[in-house]
Design a protein that fits this description.
The chain is α/β, with parallel strands linked by helices. It is built from ten helices and 18 strands.
């Protein structure tokens, strides 16, 4: 059975509840922007590209229903005003990821331009919005596949000379796969492309405390796709690089990004910065994988990025299904929350940290990999040009967990997955 992270057909949107993974596959219907805001805020859907897509489609769903039942004439500016209001509200759900605000800005422009056309009606505004949101959904999958191909090629080109003919291992953090995007993934898309090329020896993925996106979600995807992988706690990365870098040919640490400042400073899941420091110390490449929409030219440095802080309770308590030790199985029906800290403990819980540009070796996007120039500066001009980078030769992409458009699967599970 094909597993889809985002199910969409015009007039209906369902998302896989990521708080129930990996033990249950439960879909939530999103029928309004309020329901999308709640799902994004509670992290039932997460990952910078995915929340942008879900937010955009959550407005398209009721818009499609209005088109089905309304025939009366209503000025187009009233429809535009409501859409713009909803988009601005959705942006408040999670402030650090730039993809959501970028998508909202583009969609607002589309709506305003359509409403200002003297020939437009309310139906025209709604129809144009729906088509623009659906286009973003399809584009995200295609962009992620390109990111994967460019990143895999870059890693193989930059692996240690002593291991030119060997397969490589990589480390990844948080969840950057199909569950964090519309399909395929960014950093995990690079892993999938390495696997497809026959160049992947092993992937080590971090637990990613305190929300455990690595152990719950990345592990779920890797096992589903049959990719050789090992889970480590966040604090084991240094020991792993120190003792197994050579034997496992660990060539790179590959991470995603929620926002990349104009100078290259990168906000990503908490723990990313420490991995970059470790990579530099152990002479391992550090690669950021993200679509161009993640580059925020209005934010000059990482110091200007607003870092979301999550509730203390997420660190102090942990929730999950009961493990029946005598039967060696998990009972997904029995959900319990337990305290893992002393009574009275205070906690600081930033959701993200900022990795300085000087620790980043490259940023892979759908147009290619950007490296710092001879002055140590990232230049983004070329990646925003339409034909700036030659396409990487085609690789038969695996079919990971994905989504559907109008009931047609755009990315499916690998044929070898169970």
């Amino acid at each position: 059975m094909v597993l889809q992270a985002i199910k969409y057909s015009r007039g209906r949107l369902d998302i896989l509840d990521q708080l129930r993974l990996p033990h249950e596959e439960v879909y939530i219907n999103i029928a309004s922007c309020q329901e999308a805001w709640n799902a994004i805020k509670s992290m039932q859907v997460r990952g910078a590209p995915a929340i942008a897509i879900v937010a955009a489609l959550s407005i398209a769903v009721p818009a499609a229903r209005v088109l089905e039942i309304e025939n009366q004439h209503i000025p187009p500016d009233s429809a535009a005003q409501q859409i713009i209001y909803d988009l601005e509200y959705l942006v408040t759900s999670r402030p650090t990821a730039v993809n959501l605000s970028d998508a909202a800005t583009k969609l607002k422009t589309v709506v305003k331009n359509t409403a200002n056309d003297p020939s437009s009606e309310k139906r025209t505004v709604l129809q144009t919005y729906i088509e623009a949101a659906e286009h973003m959904l399809v584009d995200d999958v295609q962009d992620n596949e390109r990111i994967g191909k460019h990143g895999a090629k870059w890693i193989m080109r930059n692996k240690p000379r002593a291991a030119r003919e060997d397969k490589v291992s990589v480390i990844t953090h948080c969840n950057t796969g199909s569950l964090a995007t519309a399909g395929y993934g960014t950093a995990l898309g690079v892993v999938r492309s390495l696997q497809c090329l026959g160049s992947l020896h092993h992937v080590f993925y971090t637990e990613t405390r305190p929300y455990n996106q690595g152990s719950r979600l990345t592990g779920y995807e890797l096992i589903h796709d049959g990719i050789p992988a090992t889970l480590i706690t966040d604090s084991m990365a240094a020991a792993l690089l120190n003792t197994r870098r050579a034997s496992d040919n660990i060539a790179a640490i590959v991470v995603g990004a929620d926002r990349v400042a104009a100078n290259g400073d990168t906000a990503n899941k908490i723990g990313t910065y420490s991995l970059a420091v470790l990579a530099r110390h152990h002479s391992v490449k550090f690669l950021v994988a993200a679509p161009r929409t993640t580059i925020d030219m209005e934010t000059k440095t990482g110091a200007d990025i607003v870092i979301e802080e999550r509730p203390e309770i997420e660190m102090l308590n942990i929730k999950g299904p009961v493990y029946l030790r005598d039967e060696s199985k998990v009972d997904a029906r029995l959900i319990q929350e337990v305290c893992v800290a002393a009574k009275g403990t205070r906690a600081w819980n930033p959701a993200f940290d900022v990795t300085p540009a000087e620790l980043i070796d490259g940023v892979v996007m759908e147009k290619g990999v950007v490296e710092k120039d001879e002055h140590g500066v990232f230049r983004w001009d070329k990646v925003f040009e339409e034909h700036a980078v030659e396409d990487v030769p085609e690789v038969d992409a695996p079919k990971p967990l994905g989504m559907a458009v109008d009931g047609i699967t755009a990315t499916e599970s690998m044929a070898t997955a169970s």
